[in-house]
Design a protein that fits this description.
The complex is a heterodimer of chains A (about 230) and B (about 220). Chain A is an all-alpha fold. In chain A, about 60% of the residues lie in helices and about 0% in strands. Chain A folds into two domains: about 160 residues, no CATH class; about 50 residues, no CATH class. Chain B contains five helices and eight strands, in the order αβββββαβααββα. The chains are: A mainly alpha (about 230), B alpha+beta (about 220).
Chain lengths: ~230, ~220
């Protein structure tokens, strides 16, 4: 796979949130506002790129049987280093906003998933690119969700009020149930786009195998009617 | 047997490298981290203390309350600040900073750390001026000198000018005789957070009465 393709793969074609559906817990928890989402995305991108690179460098000395604990140790190390560096040198507002989210990155399954699925099979350069691409995809998806949720919950985007009188807006959207609803709407929209573009090319859209569409008759995703 | 040894060795090696890297970074950033934490706390206290404050000094503390003396250029104490916490917020501990004058009148109350529910309990804790999207295109004077002013919060502001020397803080409608009855107005729907803040302020008040000799005025 070419370097450019590896990089852009994570942003749209295999977007970790919208397509791979990885890392749902941090997605739902930290997309409550656009600002939180973008900070979380940036921190995750850094950890993802570093851990992908290191895992790829060490892939020969990591035995297959204990690879998961090894990955976790590497990821946790980078998360702690980021935490130390940010506490020491980053602006106070950023540290405060990211405080509780940083340790969450350790158990973010995007990071572990990419170490397992990509970095342990490819060279360090491609792994680094994959990490940055996936991280950017995660950041974009999170920010999009965060902006929509923040707008409905308080009438603001990036803490700038668009509708001034909406201070105590639709609070449902600032909690996990609201996050599920917005995420569902996004996924439906993306599936619609994919089905449409597949139809334009005269092909039938193949839904991901893990959705198990063969046994379900609800949305007719990919069938000719849709 | 040979395989177990190999697995153990490689795991140990990776953990050792990780440990060494962490120890190195931790040692290198220890000084800057402490400095940053101190600077953050001082920046918060500056908002509660008079402009003439030149030095903030920690003074003897106890019972979960930390006192700070604000001194001016000549070294005279001009105001105090105190930090305390209450464990019974809705999301755990709530840390409160109170700045007060030599006569015990509160200059301002600030919540320095909390994990209250955003949009509900946080309304009792946060001091934030809402920024309008439209103000990006139209800069007013308010926007430029906003940095040095304590943003409003109706609950926290109701502590202003109450006396630490007076009675215990209670919820109720503030009355003219505030010297004897300290009434503050909690925020509807954020009673638990408001109560936690009130308890922390009361702890500071009772501790201040024992330790600081307030001027009569």
């Amino acid at each position: 796979m070419s370097a450019f393709k590896t990089f852009t793969n994570g942003i749209w074609k295999e977007n970790p949130v919208f397509i791979l559906l990885l890392g749902m817990c941090p997605t739902l928890a930290t997309s409550s506002s656009a600002k939180n989402a973008i900070y979380m995305g940036m921190a995750t991108t850094f950890v993802l790129a570093c851990s992908n690179f290191v895992v790829s460098c060490f892939k020969r000395i990591i035995p297959d049987k204990v690879r998961i604990p090894c990955f976790i140790v590497i990821i946790a190390t980078f998360v702690t280093i980021v935490q130390f560096l940010m506490e020491a040198y980053a602006p106070a507002a950023l540290v405060k906003a990211l405080g509780i989210y940083l340790p969450l990155i350790t158990v973010n399954c995007i990071v572990l998933g990419r170490a397992e699925a990509f970095a342990s099979k490819h060279n360090p350069f491609l792994s680094l690119l994959d990490g940055i691409g996936m991280g950017l995809g995660f950041t974009l998806a999170l920010t999009a969700l965060g902006a929509v949720r923040e707008f409905f919950a308080s009438g603001t985007i990036f803490e700038l009020s668009i509708i001034p009188a909406w201070n105590d807006g639709f609070k449902l959207f600032s909690y996990a149930p609201g996050a599920f609803i917005v995420l569902g709407a996004f996924l439906a929209g993306i599936n619609y786009l994919k089905i449409r573009s597949a139809a334009k090319e005269g092909k039938t859209y193949e839904p991901p195998a893990e959705l198990n569409c063969a046994t379900c008759n609800i949305c007719h995703i990919g069938s000719k009617k849709a | 047997m040979k395989e177990i040894l190999k697995l153990t060795l490689s795991l140990t090696l990776i953990c050792a490298i990780a440990g060494a890297a962490l120890a190195f970074v931790s040692q290198k950033t220890d000084g800057p981290r402490k400095k940053a934490r101190l600077a953050q706390r001082n920046a918060k206290m500056k908002l509660l203390l008079p402009e003439e404050t030149a030095k903030i000094q920690e003074s003897p503390t106890g019972n979960g309350v930390t006192f700070f003396e604000a001194r001016d250029n000549t070294g005279k104490v001009i105001a105090y600040c105190a930090e305390s916490s209450d464990p019974n917020g809705f999301g755990g501990e709530v840390k409160v900073l109170v700045g007060f004058n030599l006569n015990g009148a509160i200059r301002g109350v600030l919540v320095s750390e909390n994990s209250e529910t955003p949009g509900i309990g946080s309304r009792a804790c946060n001091r934030e001026t809402p920024k309008s999207f439209w103000s990006l295109f139209q800069k007013t004077e308010d926007d430029t000198n906003r940095e040095n002013v304590l943003p409003p919060n109706s609950y926290l502001d109701s502590y202003n000018n109450c006396r630490l020397t007076g009675g215990e803080f209670q919820f109720g409608i503030p009355s003219p005789e505030q010297d004897t009855n300290n009434y503050v107005m909690p925020i509807t729907g954020a009673t638990i957070s408001s109560t936690a803040i009130r308890n922390a302020v009361n702890r500071i008040a009772s501790e201040a009465k024992n330790r600081i000799s307030f001027t009569q005025e």
